[in-house]
Design brief:
The protein has twelve helices and twelve strands. The protein is an alpha/beta fold. The strands form two sheets. The chain has a seven-stranded mixed sheet. Helix 1 (51-67) crosses helix 12 (367-386), helix 4 packs across helix 5 (191-202) and helix 10 (318-332) packs across helix 11 (338-363).
Amino acid sequence: MLRLPKRELTVNFPVHMDDGSVRMFTGYRVHHSTVRGPTKGGIRYHPDVTLDEVRALAMWMTWKCAVVGLPFGGAKGGVVCKPEEMSMNELENLTRRYATEIAVLMSPEGDIPAPDVNTNPQVMAWIMDTYSMHKGYSVPAVVTGKPISIGGSLGRRDATGRGVAICTREALKYLKMDPKACRAAVQGFGNVGGSAALNLSRLGMKVVLVSDIKGCIFNPAGLDIPYLQSITDRFGVVDRSRLRGAEELPGSSWIEQKVDILVPAALEGQVTGETATRIKDTVKILAEGANGPTTPEADVILNDKGIFVIPDILCNAGGVTVSYFEWVQGLQFFFWSEEEINKRLEEIMVRSFNDVLGISQEKNVDMRVAAYILAISRVAEATMTRGIYP
């Protein structure tokens, strides 16, 4: 039962473009499991989106929600497009039509989308508004990752990167390493990578390299992350013309740095059998900010190198955790302070890290296997307890 998604939707839909033409787009929404609660998962806009990718990401969301103990199943969605080549008007037209097409699956009680690659709070606002127009009243709990002005949660935008930093901090404690003596490299400088870099720097470590789709930005003395964020566009691309105190390196350089911590926070499949061999012996921790950044072949190499891998379903679960908080606030129309949000996030991430670490030590397995043992056992128990209808 857990091997197959519960349901899959493929939609082909027209969109009015600014030049007066009409283009057809393909989108997907997949629900992997509903046994622990409504399905939860992001929507990505990317030219490489496929049904197989969305299936895999939906299953990942099931395990991610389970490993941190949230009452959700996994879902994922995506549209095959190049958002960087579209105007805001075209993106709005695409989003509203896609939201209408998947509305048969979407509801606060059944399926709650969120941002993912190349989507953001504005996209969530369009989805929420479209759904609400169909209902005839505002339904803020139908999506998470919304702007604060329409029912979004304080702390949501920073949550995934903050969770990466919390897990990294706990790993440093376990390995008896001082954050202030550590250097880090972060691949990706969008919502997750940028927030992770900022929160790692707040722990006292030097973030010496960040990368975006144009390449890497490097400063051996440590980058000024707040300044870099101030010159970064909505697609996570840093304005090279305004760089100061930093140099540019080729795109693959992020994995070859003499650092203590590597954070892949872009797309999946970035740490492969080939690239893993180029990781320096100084690296002690690989914190997976992205979903599925490491291939099975690379996992073997990382284990042989003695690198402590914090797996994606644990490491980047801060985003879905605060999405859960936002959903609860939306259902209750009662909102929490950012201090409360961050305190609750800290508690869940620390507890979940220690739960996975405990299984890793008890069963003498790596952290990824331990995380899957914990997650799958929780979903399997719920599945068996509910039984098969009719």
